[in-house]
Amino acid sequence: MTKVGQMPLRAGGVCPIGFRTMILKAKTSVWLENERGQTIMDPEIYQILKAIYLVGSMSKAAEKVRKQFRRVWGIVKETEAVYGRPLVETGPNGSRLTEEGYRLLVKYEELAKTCKRSANTKFRKIFYF
């Protein structure tokens, strides 16, 4: 068993809880809502938009995220309605993010990474003295 003075200062390290030793790590989830509490971006929507960006097709993106095409299409359309702007363009050569869709994807990704880093820093300070 690790003594308090010997605890590693890294996320996922050993932390004494009561009489047991446990491996702990911080997990974060970020979502964006409008003023009415409607979701504009969350991990699921991010995954879908990222897949569309990477594969250039809504149907292939649906396969990549392991969801039915109809579900992916519905999520995109619902998100666009809440956001008030088109996020995906669909044409004869597939689908791609609009400029606004790409901007939202990049900013969300940056925010999620920042929150994760911040949570890990706080986690180490709180749980690993």
From TrEMBL:
<dbReference type="InterPro" id="IPR036388">
    <property type="entry name" value="WH-like_DNA-bd_sf"/>
</dbReference>
<protein>
    <submittedName>
        <fullName>LysR family transcriptional regulator</fullName>
    </submittedName>
</protein>
<dbReference type="InterPro" id="IPR051815">
    <property type="entry name" value="Molybdate_resp_trans_reg"/>
</dbReference>
<dbReference type="InterPro" id="IPR036390">
    <property type="entry name" value="WH_DNA-bd_sf"/>
</dbReference>
<dbReference type="GO" id="GO:0003700">
    <property type="term" value="F:DNA-binding transcription factor activity"/>
</dbReference>
